[in-house]
Request: fold
Amino acid sequence: MARTKIVGVIGFVLTVSGWTTQAVAVDGIKLLSQPKTFPIVISTPGSYRLKKNITVPDENTTAIQITVSNVTLDLNGFSIIGPTVCSGNPTVTSCTPVGSGTGIQATANNVTILNGMITGMGNIGIAMGQGRIEGVTVSNNGLDGLNGAIYSSISRVVATNNGRIGIGTGAFCNISNSVSSGNKDRGIGAADGSSVSGNVVVNNGGDGIWTNSDSSVIGNTVRFSGGYGIFMFDGGYANNVSTGNTLGAVSGGINMGHNVCNLSLCP
Reply:
């Protein structure tokens, strides 16, 4: 009898909270795919990866809930997709249908979300506490693209055409090298002690960049906002370009130098 030698990959099935994921023992990463019921609940620390796109049935359904700390979720180039579409050009004026569904809802700390897209959710694309978001696009969500992060790092995020804020965070966040455009309200909103650097913020309905106390705004390009280009309660700003914004280039803050306001150096 001929024998077949199998080398390298050993799989097993793990069932948690009503959903099934295929885990690959070689690297220990659990693969997530379309579930029979929502939400997918991640309640065990570890690394997870999307195997394919996940589509929710309506605007009130949340796709993934992360309820435990120390989780990495790699979207692996795939998307979480809902039915909501936002309209208006170049800035969103309305989204429909809107509801309570969130793409990824993380209620624990030290959560990392990487490399994919969340689009068309009835409420928020990503709602999270403390962690890291990198290489993710959030678009056409009924409320915010990203909201709620605190003590977090947010980089290489693209937030476009959402029904309120593109990227909104709590205190002590670092928002860098991201794009926020076409959102109905603010492009980027960050609470106390945050750093906003190296971002491109264009055609948002409210202020382009809005920060609370003790924040810094460094090296951003902000154009064609419906409010101020940069609005700060205090803190410093430097090396920014702010042009064509309806209420003005900058309001508040301390000019630390090398800022361009409407094609001239800021006063």
Notes: Residues 123 and 142 are 5 Å apart (CA to CA). DSSP finds no helices and 34 strands in the chain. Residues 22-265 form one domain.
